Amino acid sequence: MDLERLLTDRLTPAFAAVAGEPVAPTVRRSPRADFQSDAALALARRLGRPPREIARAVLDHAVLDDVCAVAEVSGPGFVNLTLADGALAGMVAALAGDERLGVPVTGEPETVVVDYSGPNVAKEMHVGHLRSTVIGDAAVRVLGWLGHRVVRVNHLGDWGTPFGMLIAHLVDLGEAEAAQELSIGDLDGFYRAARSKFDADPAFRERARQRVVALQGGDPETRRLWRLLVGQSQRYFLTVYELLDVTLTGEDFRGESAYNDRLGAVVTDLDRLGLLTDSAGATCVFPPGFVGRDGVGLPLIVRKGDGGYGYPATDLAALRQRVDELGATRLLYVVGLPQRQHFAMVFAVAGQAGWLRPPVRAEHLGFGSVLGPDGRMLRSRAGGSVKLVDLLTEAVTRATALARTRNPDLDEAAAAEIGRAVGIGAVKYADLATDRTRDYVLDWERMLALDGNTAPYLQYAYTRTRSVLRRAGAVPGAATVVLPGTPAERALAVELLGFAGVVHEVARTAQFHHLAGYLHRLATRFSTFYERCPVLRADGELRASRLLLTDLTGRTLRQGLDLLGIRTLDRM
């Protein structure tokens, strides 16, 4: 049950009748009632009528008697709506009996491709990969739970001129030693050693260039060594994904190399469509609307002057494959904000070529950076990028220590389980609770706090619901919700009915901080309810009603956190 949608559906025809045209009621929660619409204020300017007069006319047309106890005009022209106790109780009882918590499977499933994580072969995953991986995985979980066919794509950097250098270094080391070095996760060390030799040794540099030619020409031995590099890197990436507890698997890897055979067709078809222009020796498309500071149009280079292909050609080939072969109608690219213009130009060119047309749409889910306490890009003590595995390991270590401090009697296995769930959850939630377009500061003390808008606070709220139900001995199967109860009970009931609306909004916008914010509000409402409304000491119908609210809160917290990729525990 989506309360905001229900009230919106009731007010929409009323506003249309008053305005003579469709009007969005913009229903939202209100501190002065359960819900509020301020659409009359904006409509007043268009109609030249006082907003309070418009609001009264809307209420005259609206059918709300079966849902609202009070529907009134407030202030300069707000429509305030207070739900009827009987209607509210009935909706909560129905919600409790729904295993999907009022969130139906979509009746119009789409094929959605989510392109996320995207590390580079023979390079360490660092903190810069955290946001793409966590945000992309949340998108996969939400859209999949709603019934869409979701295709995960881990677009690996596994091709290009650096691989000549890496293969030559692998040969120098010997396959066994190289495999050992890569398998323990020292990808950065391997890459730095290769780069150092490339910069300092002309003979090595020549061997590297010959390997590039051999790789691109399909030489079997060079291709075998290249696959060894890719395979070892992929195995290491999977250990990081397992620690981070995301859904990516080995089947989701699809490197840039997978599109090599399609690049020529991209250029040929763009040429046939008359979209190509030669510019300084390169083959380019100049999509309309993109200009530099000098007012000159910006090119999207699909083939470089030396005949090689760059990222734009690969991204265009990938987009075509996802639409034509996978049947995708929604493409999500979870890549940092600095790539915003690149993707906007790729999408524009794909639109010009007819490869991206309704109902297909592509969206760049850009995100900000993770900052250190000094407000600058998070760096290691040595000044380099922080390895993602080191960050996650530190989170688990800190959370495990906190768990032991709070409960010294925990055995080793229990402390490790709590430490991992809380530590990894804290890292992921701090990321997802932030508007993804903004930077945020990595603050261990705040992230691991048991109060405030944090994963541990929500996880603890969930364990509290489980504790109450364990002590009660049973969960009511079909209890009656007793309302009106205390204000705390009513507030919790209204909050529980907001879950469906938030999930659908997040599926549309990929703004996961709205789901995080909802879960925090729900946990806060439950905390107030827990303090003010005795559950186990209540009797009869009231006890059963409060147990139902407790169980429903726990189920909602568990499902909401699972959509964010965060584990819950029955005990902490």
Word description of this protein:
The protein is an alpha/beta fold and 572 residues long. Strands 1-2-4-3 form a four-stranded antiparallel β-sheet. A hairpin with a 2-residue loop joins strand 7 and strand 8. It is globular, with a radius of gyration of 28 Å. The chain is built from 21 helices and 13 strands.
Task: List the topology elements.
Layout: H1 3-19, E1 27-29, E2 35-37, H2 39-47, H3 51-61, E3 68-74, E4 78-83, H4 85-96, E5 111-115, H5 130-145, E6 149-153, H6 162-173, H7 175-183, H8 187-200, H9 202-216, H10 220-244, H11 260-272, E7 277-279, E8 282-285, E9 300-303, H12 311-324, E10 330-333, H13 340-353, E11 361-364, E12 370-371, H14 388-406, H15 412-432, E13 440-441, H16 444-447, H17 455-472, H18 487-496, H19 499-509, H20 513-532, H21 540-563
Parallel strand pairs: 5-6, 5-10, 10-11, 12-13
Antiparallel strand pairs: 1-2, 2-4, 3-4, 7-8, 8-9
Helix pairs in contact: 1-3, 2-3, 4-21, 6-8, 6-9, 6-10, 7-10, 8-9, 11-12, 12-13, 14-15, 17-20, 17-21, 18-20, 18-21, 20-21
